[in-house]
Amino acid sequence: MTSRMESAAATRRALLEAADALLDLGGPEAVTLREVGARAGMTRGAPYRHFADKETLLIAVGARAWQDIEERARALAADPALTPAERLRANLAAVVDIARTRPYLYELMFSRPAGDPEALVRAARGSNEVFVETVAALVGERDARRYGALLMAGVDGIANLEAGGQLDGEKWGTSADELIDTLVAMVARHGANG
Prior knowledge:
Helices cover 72% and strands 0% of the residues. By secondary structure, it is an all-alpha fold. Residues 32-51 bind DNA. InterPro entries: Homeodomain-like_sf, HTH-type_TetR-like_transc_reg, HTH_TetR, MT1864/Rv1816-like_C, Tet_transcr_reg_TetR-rel_C_sf.
């Protein structure tokens, strides 16, 4: 027999999955609480029992994405077959992959919701700590946060240039993957030269 808490958690998961799908289809404008309820096969009012408003729902979607990144980063960190540089590359590539395959989610993850501007910053803390540990394995504890911020700024720029079709062709003649490799090599060189 399913407990009331398990049922509520399952309903919440279904609502988040529906919101996730709607976000992918048409961005934040496509996500309405009523449509989320309908898409989840529930009453259109069901989401209102779990989320105060659309912004709260979208924050939950973004927070869940950050949790997924953290879980992936922890799995990479625990893989003894990977070098620190390979772990770093995989983490950066995961960010670009989200920007490539789920651009609305990517934008949401890095947004500052009006009602709680720090909500997604808080949601990203766990993945950020794992990322900083990954960077520290290459450059040391002292420089890890500075290099981590530089890497995230760089990968965000790479993702945006790629999304705008600015990387390949005559303008830059490169790819996101080549630029990620370059970032990792630069950081690894710094670590080696310490």
